[in-house]
Amino acid sequence: MLPCRCLETRRGEGALVLNPESLAQRAVDILSERKALDIALIDISKTASFTDYFVIATAQSPLQFSSLQDYLEKEFAPEGVDLRHREGSGDSGWMLLDFGDLIVHIFSPDQRAYYRLEELWGRTSPVVRFAD
Q1: Number of structural domains the chain divides into
Q2: Burial call 53-73: b when 16+ CB within 10 Å, e when fewer
Q3: CA-to-CA distance for 126 and 121, rounded, in angstroms?
Q4: Which of 32, 45, 60, 53 is nearest to 105 (CA)?
Q5: How far apart are alpha carbons 67 and 4 in whole angstroms?
Q6: Inter-residue contact 22 to 39 (CB < 8 Å)
Q7: Are 27 and 33 in contact (CB under 8 A)?
Q8: Cross-strand partners of 70
């Protein structure tokens, strides 16, 4: 596991939680460790009010979709970050995981090409890609 060079903030009763940028970077690290492909990070904080970051990745099988979701939830829970909402499934070829300040989109290769989120959101926000 890569060390997170994260900025942390204090919330509530002194608990440390990841700020949105650190949370997004942590998601990239987790997805990369679990062999997700073509990972992209988009800071949409200046163009959207519903979240700060999108992380987009490609999964190769329904089993990998479930695994990626499980690992994200397990790794974020100690940080006080819970999954707020999930849509889609591995069988459908797309999954949205809403962690509040971060939304993770996981696609099959075909669904990713169909939805083209990087192209849509990249018009107003820079897209940072991470090599496989």
Answers
A1: 1
A2: bbbbbbbeeeebbbbbbeebe
A3: 8
A4: 53
A5: 21
A6: no
A7: no
A8: none
pLDDT in tens, 35-59: 999 999 999 999 999 999 999 999 9
- The answer to whether 16 and 103 have CB atoms below 8 angstroms apart is no
User: Buried b vs exposed e over 82-104: b needs ≥16 C-beta within 10 Å?
Assistant: eeeeeebebeebbbebebebbbb
Instruction: Assign residue 63 the CATH number of its domain.
Output: 3.30.460.10
8 found inside a domain: no
**Locus of tokens 């192209």:** 119
**pLDDT averaged over every residue in the chain:** 86
Q: How far is CA 66 from CA 16, 53, 72, 109, in A?
A: 28, 21, 10, 16
**C-alpha span between 66 and 43 (Å, rounded):** 25
What is the span of the domain harbouring residue 113? 15-122
Q: Identify the residue whose tokens are 């939805």.
A: 115
Q: Are 64 and 80 in contact (CB under 8 A)?
A: no
Long-range interactions of 10-13: CB distance < 8 A, separation 24+: 11/80
